[in-house]
Amino acid sequence: MVTILHGVALLGYLAAGVLQTVSFAGERAEVPRGGVLLIGGAALVQLGALVAFGARFGELPLVGLGPSLSTLAFLIALFLLFATIASDARPVGLVLLPVIVALLAAALLIGVRPSGEPLAFSGAWFSFHVVLAFVGVAGFAFAFAAGLLYLLQFRELKSKRFGRIFRFFPALNTLDRLGRSSAVVGFCALTAGLALGWAWTIRFRGTFAMGDPQVIWGALTWVVFAGVLGARIGGAGSNRRAALVSVWGFALVVLAYVVLRLAQAGGAAFL
Amino acid sequence: MGVHVVGLSHHTTPLPIRERVTLDGPELHEALHALHGAGAAEVVIFSTCNRTEIYARDDADDAAAGAAHAFLRARGGLSEEDAGRFVYTRSDDAAARHLFRVVSGIDSLVLGEPQIQGQVRSAYESAASQNGRERTAGPILSRLFETALSVGGRVRAETRLGAGAASVPSAAVALARKIFGSLQGRSTVIVGAGEMGELTLQCLLDEGVSGVVVANRTAQRAENLVARLGGEAATFERLPELLRTASIVACATAAPHHVISADMVARAFREGRKEPMLLLDIALPRDVEPGAGSIDGVFLYDVDDLQQVVDSTLAQRRGEIDRADAIIGHGVSEFMTWYRGRSVVPVIQALRGHAEQLRQAELERALRSAHLDPQTAAAVDVLTKQLLNKILHAPTTRLREAAKDGREGEVAEAARYLFGLDEMGGQD
């Protein structure tokens, strides 16, 4: 059931992504409303899949690569869904839906099942720590997507090209607002998540455990995130600077994850 | 006999002649009633600066089309040769298709213009309302115009024929929206109080901009514009200060040199401006030094750039014409099916009336001679009615089918001949 529901959700996100791409390629001015319904429906099915996971295995889908990727994909989809309902941000899905589909497809390939790895840090505080960190990463992914669209739209407007990007993408101001809001929400959540993790480590292990790849990655993500918000301070070019830092910062965080993940083979608890 | 459109438009006729023919207010009502009394069973006149068209229906011959043609020729003071060149006439399905294309904006000067539907509705309502006199739009033109408005609505909803900015001022608004999103509350400066500045300001005000300042070399013209549209008047001396705060600056002066220099814009940012600035230079020669566009946070567009937005919109709209025509074709077919079906109704009524008369006469004679009791007489009445209905079912159905196939004329003629309807005094 868990796998089937994940498969259905994957198809839903895929269909929404295809609809967005077709709308964009067809030089439409916006994504049809059906695209939002598809994302909402797919997110609902995925929620069902995650609940089914909890019921079947008796734990939250937060440990092990498959369940973690699925939860992260779900949180990114929630960000996207909320933004598309609350503003004219549907085209952000052009960037985020492929990310969601890739995460979910990877989760299905790996298998959405518990890692079986015994954890020292577990229980409610562990769940808070992981969920908050995931919300942080999802917020960063959203800021990345909004930033990328901002830079593309900015380039179109500056170079006076009035093609499909000009027609389809939201206004610069909207993209900037989305990037700022998601960065603020994500940064607060990540800070709280990391603080919980460190508090536990200090309390029960009496150390910062700075050599742990997860901790290195968490700290790097936090620093980059702080850089995204810091880039907003300043004069007229601060919006574009923030978009640039969001895009390159997110790319750096993903690259760092892949490198650290490869360096720590078998670490199932690490996202 | 049929529905006709007789008219002239921007496609065929120069503006001075179109201006002479245009009808409005009391003149329009007079013309409606004049044509109604001159052979047209129904009339609707649609008249704008781009076209004047008379939609008319006649009963027996082409009297309505002829009267409409003569009316336009006389009103425009046209020679026979000019009338032949400028005035077009279309009938039945071609007339319906023409109207549907007009309502959809396909025939407009600006492809897909949104105002046309309201103008057509207003023309139809003028003819359909009584205003103390006989209405000139009857059942057929009413159906034609209602179908046209419905088809126009479908074209607007199902295609992108009306999407995007199709004029320079609307392109300015589209660019502003792409930078700022909503324009509600955005401060705006219009430099120059000429016609283009006014049109652009009007478009921006429709989008909700506020804090409008009109800056002009002479304060009087700025004050005149402000008196009409609202805002604050200023002279060019205040421009450096205004550039520090305004989100949108639209320049449309007749000055032979730059009114806003790149340095003036750069200074505004050096002095603490943080928000992006949209500079719309819709003047020829240009008012803004081109170098201002390279400043980070400044989006500078001149009239060629705005025209590029308009051209791109129109190219996209042209790509929608086939889809719109498919919807229009469906509407024409629906209307013509109804219209032709209506044309056989009098024949069917005559046929049934004639047969009923015969039945009644024969029934009375039979009842008088046979002295039947009431129960038997009632049974005979029912029997003859049923018999008659069964006999007339096939011809009625064939007539309706012929109308759908467009053969209503010949089949109705045959029915009249076979059943001797004309000999009965033309009961239709």
Description:
The complex is a heterodimer of chains A (271) and B (428). By secondary structure, chain A is mainly α. Helices cover 76% and strands 0% of the residues of chain A. Chain A is built from nine helices and no strands. The model of chain B has no long low-confidence stretch (mean pLDDT 88). In chain B, the strands form two sheets. A six-stranded parallel beta sheet of chain B has the order 7-6-5-8-9-10. In chain B, strands 2-3-1-4 form a four-stranded antiparallel beta sheet, with helices on both faces. At the A-B interface, helix 5, helix 7 and helix 9 of A face helix 8 and helix 13 of B.
List the helices and strands of chain B in order. EHHEEHHEHHHHEHEHEHEHEEHHHH
Counting helices, strands and paired strands, the structural category of chain A is mainly alpha
Average residue-wise pLDDT of chain B: 88
Strand content of chain A: under 5%
Spatial separation of the terminal alpha carbons of chain A: 23 Å
Class inferred from helices and paired strands of chain B: alpha/beta
Helix content of chain B: 55-70%
Poorly predicted segments of chain B: none
The 3D shape of chain A can be described as globular
Largest interface: A-B, 24 and 26 residues
What does the main sheet of chain B amount to? Answer: 6 strands, parallel
Q: Strand-residue fraction of chain B?
A: 5-15%
> What fraction, in percent, of the residue positions of chain A are helical?
over 70%
- Following the backbone from N to C, one meets helices and strands of chain A in this order, namely HHHHHHHHH
| Total beta-strand segments of chain B | 10
N→C terminal distance of chain B? 15 Å
What do the pLDDT scores of chain A average to?
A: 85
Low-confidence segments of chain A: none
Looking at the structure, what is the overall shape of chain B?
elongated
Strand elements of chain A, count: 0
Count of DSSP H/I helices of chain B: 16
